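**Fold in tokens:**
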Amino acid sequence: MSKKIYVILLILICALTIGCAGAPEPAPEPPPRQEPAQTPQPVVVTPAPEPAPVVAAPEPEPQPVVVTPPPPVVVTPPPPAAVTPPPAQEELILQGASRHNIIWRDSLSQIAARVYGAENMYYFPLIRLANANVVSDPDMIMPDVVLVIPDLQANLNDPGARALLKTEMLSMVVHYQRRNMLRAAAEIRNLADRL
């Protein structure tokens, strides 16, 4: 065993020895005290009162069970969806369109001025839009090509055609701004803003 265990055992033995040796002895009990003799007193016994008869509580009468139905559930149908008109079809009106054979040195703005009137020459994007398959650049049209010339007023009166024309005119504004042709860009922008 190690020294620590020997030391602990030694301390325990000493503590037990001191604890047993130092305990005081108990004091002797005093002698019992003698009471003087008393004469017995007569005991008066009173009879217990008669117990009251036990009457069972009356059973409560069964109450009828009243079931109240839940309030009716009122289902309100959702409000009808707002009827929106179908979007206008964005198509050009080609009824009543005329035809024009391009000659040398023609431009779309000159053709628009001849057909629609000089004050409407900047509506030439309508002609380019109707002939997108043969006119990619409005400033470069080839002679001997037959163009479809849509009716201006019919297209301005139709919401779908007017929206399509406005989009085309705004793209022409960008086209002429890039070419630094600011007067043409400003005139077309002015007309497009009124559509």
In short: The first helix runs from residue 3 to 21. Helices lie at 3-21, 108-116, 124-130, 152-157, 159-178, 182-194. The two ends are 111 Å apart (CA to CA).
